[in-house]
UniProtKB/TrEMBL annotation:
<dbReference type="InterPro" id="IPR011989">
    <property type="entry name" value="ARM-like"/>
</dbReference>
<feature type="binding site">
    <location>
        <position position="473"/>
    </location>
    <ligand>
        <name>substrate</name>
    </ligand>
</feature>
<dbReference type="InterPro" id="IPR000023">
    <property type="entry name" value="Phosphofructokinase_dom"/>
</dbReference>
<keyword id="KW-0324">Glycolysis</keyword>
<dbReference type="InterPro" id="IPR004155">
    <property type="entry name" value="PBS_lyase_HEAT"/>
</dbReference>
<comment type="similarity">
    <text>Belongs to the phosphofructokinase type A (PFKA) family. PPi-dependent PFK group II subfamily. Clade 'Long' sub-subfamily.</text>
</comment>
<dbReference type="GO" id="GO:0047334">
    <property type="term" value="F:diphosphate-fructose-6-phosphate 1-phosphotransferase activity"/>
</dbReference>
<feature type="binding site">
    <location>
        <begin position="571"/>
        <end position="574"/>
    </location>
    <ligand>
        <name>substrate</name>
    </ligand>
</feature>
<protein>
    <recommendedName>
        <fullName>Pyrophosphate--fructose 6-phosphate 1-phosphotransferase</fullName>
        <ecNumber>2.7.1.90</ecNumber>
    </recommendedName>
</protein>
<dbReference type="GO" id="GO:0005829">
    <property type="term" value="C:cytosol"/>
</dbReference>
<feature type="binding site">
    <location>
        <position position="243"/>
    </location>
    <ligand>
        <name>diphosphate</name>
    </ligand>
</feature>
<keyword id="KW-0418">Kinase</keyword>
<dbReference type="InterPro" id="IPR011183">
    <property type="entry name" value="PfpB_PPi_PFK"/>
</dbReference>
<feature type="binding site">
    <location>
        <begin position="365"/>
        <end position="367"/>
    </location>
    <ligand>
        <name>substrate</name>
    </ligand>
</feature>
<dbReference type="GO" id="GO:0046872">
    <property type="term" value="F:metal ion binding"/>
</dbReference>
<comment type="function">
    <text>Catalyzes the phosphorylation of D-fructose 6-phosphate, the first committing step of glycolysis. Uses inorganic phosphate (PPi) as phosphoryl donor instead of ATP like common ATP-dependent phosphofructokinases (ATP-PFKs), which renders the reaction reversible, and can thus function both in glycolysis and gluconeogenesis. Consistently, PPi-PFK can replace the enzymes of both the forward (ATP-PFK) and reverse (fructose-bisphosphatase (FBPase)) reactions.</text>
</comment>
<keyword id="KW-0460">Magnesium</keyword>
């Protein structure tokens, strides 16, 4: 569409020839807009193209209508043009027939008398009357509204009233125009009313156009024009929800640019400090100047974020009132799986209570667990994994030189080990734990630590006293006895004190609990996260493993050196400068979200597909949030949420890793990829997750 309207600036035969190529496209909307643009250009070469469109009875009526209107807009009177219009004044399609009649009436004023007489003989209608700018008195507006709605009036007279109301350019005259959308006799008239309302940009007329857009029985041309005009009334808000992820500012930038491309008067607001900003009605307007310094930058500091949930009836009602006060056509929630659940709840509540704000989501999480048959990868994952891999690579480089310690690296990812798997593929450490595999094999804490102990013993025989071990932060929940313990604590702690919970633990859970040092026990009872769960990121799982491994080595009477250094790479990956992939991906998500809001797709998520291809081949789409949801246990209750994606042990990524890890175990195959690249051949390469074929892993 952007290229199409650029062609309008080239008032030449070459411009028309370029536009003709677009008429081969399968999109009715595109062909319709091409006919419109040709009518705006002062090039006679467009006439035969437009005449051919009018004469093509298998062409969509919306395209034929626009071609007929373009013939009038060009204002070039030739026998061929007049013959074409006369052929179709009795066209079987009513909107086309009415368009041709109106075009003939319009050309009458420009015709010499002999041609005018010929037209009137064939199509006897009232002479057209110019629509001057009149003073908008209440009585005159009421009279023009009556004329507009009166189906006994000629279509030309009704058009005259319509344009007089438009030229008054007041809220009262705009309301009178909007009232015309209730008439039933002419889709063409309703289509033109929507067009004029878009020019007037009076927000109070939005409901009338939304009704036309939502009516699936309405003519395509009218629904299309209503959608376009609503865009010119565009008033949208955005909010960050949950933890930071690189690229979030570009989602906002893409949405902003989409709205401004629709119409310069469109407005974008940002709710502050997360979902709480919605129900407390705290917001700022996002201008080009304010947004400029945040484009392509990491973090969420443009608006701030938060983990508050909009759950209570009072919060939902306050959120609705805030959106109604701003007269929002759309609300974009940028967040992870739980934030998308919140988006679905709001969308349902808004629809049930007559709120016209379309709630749309954008997939955000660095953990890689927001992935399914619709979402190829969430934004921020690429930047986070490459940031961590850069640091792990530095650790590997250091250990290759010093050769005197084992480095245990804990990585973000509570529910899924996708980040750890990705980093292992990028850096090739000696040992990598994948939580999903630990769970599938039902490995106990002792069995997990035994893998590290065996590694140390085997490498010692080779004269090696160093290594790198990757641990996902959620490993502790994948180990059966530890996961059972945490689940029991999560269930009990909401109704009992710590002391009571410790006493109510089952015998097996208490046995595991008593093995933990005091620091780990305290972590299990620390402040819960927003979902009511233990914050596993605050549990030093790597130190727990090191402690158990030391005991196991002592049992083997190990007399070698087992020096250890532990790391946690977490929050630095959330707000790093986004990679080229995430910068482009996020901008595309924002632009896609703009389209969904524009078309009032309430309760949808913006997604972009074919991410393994060059970004020029990416495909935007909108997916209903409910299609992704299932029930999970939260705060002692079953609630609907989007199912988390876990590492697929039968998938290409894990199978490739499993086939090569034995080699990494005893040999130092480390890779140090260095810092994130922004130029050169590797700058635009995506992460492994969207690459589903084994060939991509070579």
């Amino acid at each position: 569409m952007e290229a199409l309207f650029h062609c309008r600036e080239y008032d030449s035969v070459e411009g028309i020839e370029t536009l003709k190529l677009g008429l081969r496209d399968s999109s009715v909307l595109l062909r319709h807009e091409i006919a419109y643009v040709m009518g705006q250009m002062s090039v006679a070469a467009a006439l035969p193209v437009l005449i051919e469109l009018c004469d093509n009875l298998v062409e969509h009526p919306m395209v034929r209508h626009e071609a007929g209107e373009a013939l009038h807009a060009l204002g070039v009177i030739t026998p061929e043009v007049l013959a074409c219009l006369l052929r179709h004044v009795d066209d079987p399609c009513l909107p086309v027939r009415q368009t041709m009649q109106l075009s003939l009436e319009g050309l009458q004023r420009k015709c010499p008398p002999e041609i005018r007489a010929k037209i009137k003989e064939r199509n006897a209608t009232n002479d057209p009357v110019e629509a001057p700018k009149l003073q908008a008195t209440d009585s005159l507006v009421a009279e023009l509204q009556r004329q507009l709605l009166d189906e006994s009036e000629s279509l030309w007279n009704r058009y005259e009233a319509m344009f007089k109301l438009r030229n008054m350019d007041t809220k009262r005259s705009a309301a009178a125009l909007a009232a015309g959308l209730s008439e039933k006799s002419s889709a063409l008239l309703r289509h033109e009313i929507c067009f004029l309302l878009g020019q007037l940009q009076v927000v109070e007329t939005a409901d009338a156009m939304m009704d036309r857009l939502a009516d699936l029985k309405e003519a395509d041309m009218c629904r299309h024009e209503a959608a376009i005009s609503l865009g010119s009334l565009g008033c949208v808000a955005v909010v960050f929800s949950g933890g930071q992820a690189a690229g979030g500012h570009n989602v906002v930038s893409g949405l902003f640019d989409f709205l401004k491309a629709l119409h310069p008067s469109s407005q974008l607001f940002g709710f502050l400090d997360g979902p709480k900003g919605i129900f407390t009605n705290r917001y700022i307007e996002l201008t080009a100047e304010r947004l400029a310094k945040y484009r392509n930058m990491g973090g969420f500091d443009l608006l701030g974020s938060g983990r508050d949930k909009i759950e209570s009836d009072a919060q939902k009602r306050s959120s609705l009132e805030a959106c109604a006060q701003l007269q929002l056509h759309g609300l974009l929630i940028i967040g992870g799986d739980d934030s998308m659940t919140n988006a679905a709840v709001l969308a349902e509540y808004f629809a049930a209570n007559g709120c016209r704000t379309a709630v749309v989501g954008s997939p955000k999480t660095i953990d890689g667990d927001l992935k399914n048959r619709f979402i190829e990868v969430s934004f921020g994952y690429d930047t986070a994994t490459k940031t961590y891999a850069s640091s792990i690579g530095s650790v590997c480089a250091d250990v290759s030189f010093s050769r005197d310690a084992y480095h245990f690296v804990r990585l973000m990812g509570r529910a899924a080990s996708s980040v750890t798997l990705e980093c292992a593929l990028l850096t090739r450490p000696n040992l990598t734990f994948i939580g999903e595999e630990v769970k599938a094999q039902n490995l106990s804490l002792d069995a997990v630590c035994r893998q590290v102990t065996d590694l140390v013993l085997e490498r010692r025989k080779l004269g090696l006293n160093h290594g790198v071990v990757l641990v996902p932060e959620g490993l502790i929940e994948f180990i059966p006895e530890l996961g059972d313990l945490i689940a029991e604590i999560n269930e009990l702690i909401y109704n009992h004190s710590r002391e009571e919970t410790e006493q109510l633990l089952s015998a097996s859970a208490r046995k595991v609990y008593e093995l933990f040092p005091a620091t780990i026990r305290d972590s299990l009872f620390a402040e819960r996260d927003s979902h009511g769960n233990v914050q596993v990121s605050k549990i030093s799982t790597e130190d727990l493993l090191i402690d158990v491994v030391k005991r196991q080595l002592a049992e083997h009477q190990f007399d070698g050196k087992f020096a250890t250094i532990s790391h946690f790479f977490g929050y630095e990956g959330r707000c790093a400068m986004p990679t080229n992939f995430d910068a482009n991906y996020c901008y595309s998500l924002g632009y896609t979200a703009g389209h969904l809001v524009h078309h009032q797709c309430n309760g949808f998520m913006a997604v972009v597909r074919r991410l393994k291809e060059d970004y020029t081949q990416w495909t935007p789409a909108g997916i209903p949030l409910v299609d992704m949801m299932n029930f999970e246990r939260r705060k002692g209750q079953d609630v609907p949420v989007i199912k988390k994606f876990l590492v697929d042990l039968e998938g290409a990524l894990f199978r490739y890793f499993a086939a090569h890890r034995a080699e990494y175990r005893l040999k130092d195959c480390y890779r140090n990829l260095g810092c994130i690249q922004y130029e050169g051949s590797a700058a635009n390469a995506p992460n492994f997750m969207p690459l589903v074929c084994n060939a991509a892993l070579k």
